[in-house]
Amino acid sequence: MTNNNSVPKKLSFISIYFLGINAVIGSGTFLLPSVIYRYMNLTAILVLLCTAVTVSMIALCYADLSSRFTQSGAAWLYSYNAFGRFAGYELGIFTWFLGCTTLSAEVVALLTVLKSFLPIFKNNAVYIGSIIFLILLFSVINFFGRSWVKIVNNISAAAKIITLIVFIIIGAFFIKKSNFTPVIPHAALTGVTPFFKHFGDAFTPIFYLFTGFSFIPIAAKQMNNPEKNIPRVLVAVMTSVTILDCLMLLVAIGLSGQKLGSYSNPLASALKTGVGQWGFAFMIIGMLISIFGVAFSASFNTPSLIASLANEHGMLPKWIGKKNKHDAPWVGIIFTAILSAALATQSYLFLVSCTVLASFVQYVPSILAVIKFKHSNEYPTHGFSLPGKYTIPIIALIISCYMVTNFTPKTLLLGAVVAVLAAACYFFIDKDEKLEKEHENFLAKLRHIK
């Protein structure tokens, strides 16, 4: 008699949706409104809408690709099938690096918030110990597979959405119309160049608010009906986050006005202005839950990525893709924990810049893969078809390339170092793979002769 409990349950649509919400709504949603407001004032809401539309075009490209494949891996898998083994390998390493930097950035953000009202976290030993504890906690939960993942993820995502909705609804009663002026900074109105400079400065942090969508297809094999559910989830998540972010920013400006640009915890401080200290405490708790959720989401997806590199096409040694009885990629979990813990010793802004760079590296090849598949009619879609043929991918490609102008030389140098190191490792891995195959062929020949 077959034991149905031995087969791990796949993630449902609602679980994938909550996973996507956790991947997108994180520290940036709570920490960056002050930066965004400083550059564009009330007009920042229009910039946010423009950014949401442009990022959604990239997300639609991912929806198209995820409808073509059911395997885990996302960006690296798409590039592998479009441009070959080496391109897929390089992108896989960058996407895993993106997952590690995201996990590290959220852990650092979580501890930074705790520092603001618990001085004990300013102690270096306590700070480092907390980094190790949090990453170990995520790893232990992930060792037990999807059953724990779904519980923690769904609770975290639901609490996060409730926190933002409460902020929007309660804050709306304390909005002052006078806070909606100025509409745009005077410096941005002095000419075309200053305007686009302010627009670009606001565009970059807003863009960061949406980058987490690319994590959704990474663990496709652990999801129910991924070729149909993932595209729907991508559209649902981007729509939900855009609505929440626009309302959140509108209420924050209405509560604080020009003071918003000076707050280190903008949403918490804004609600405190309206309802008092309890509002600040409520938002801090919600912020901690939100950041914890994104970190947890990254800790779940990232090990699946490195495991898929080993299991799907043998781009890494097979032992890296090993899984335990709970179907959890335990070797990938350990590797991710080690790198993430090392990265978490760096500053939050440095980790954010690494995340944006790694995002750019995976967007461009993925968009080019959409164009190629549409042209060649390879790997037909199932359940989702990108409208307009080449229009959306071309616009998405232009937007992604625009991101290059925002990278510092230091960030570009880091990207080059990661690419070179990955290429060097690929040479030795590929060489070992060829030697192993030759050895297997030799043994097969010996058996045939005997």
Automatic annotation (TrEMBL):
Q: Which domain of life is it from?
A: Bacteria
Its membrane topology, per UniProt?
Answer: Multi-pass membrane protein
A single Pfam family it belongs to is AA_permease_2
- The portions of this protein that span the membrane are 12-36, 42-65, 86-113, 125-145, 157-175, 202-220, 232-255, 275-296, 328-344, 350-371, 383-405, 411-429
Coarse class of the primary localization is membrane
Q: Which GO terms describe its molecular function?
A: transmembrane transporter activity
Kindly list the places in or outside the cell where this protein is found, as annotated in its UniProt entry: Cell membrane
Q: Give the keywords, sorted.
A: Cell membrane, Membrane, Transmembrane, Transmembrane helix
| Gene3D superfamilies documented for this protein | Amino acid/polyamine transporter I
| Cellular component terms (Gene Ontology) | plasma membrane
The protein, known as: APC family permease
| Protein source organism | Lactobacillus paragasseri
Highest classification ranks of the organism: Bacteria, Bacillati, Bacillota, Bacilli, Lactobacillales
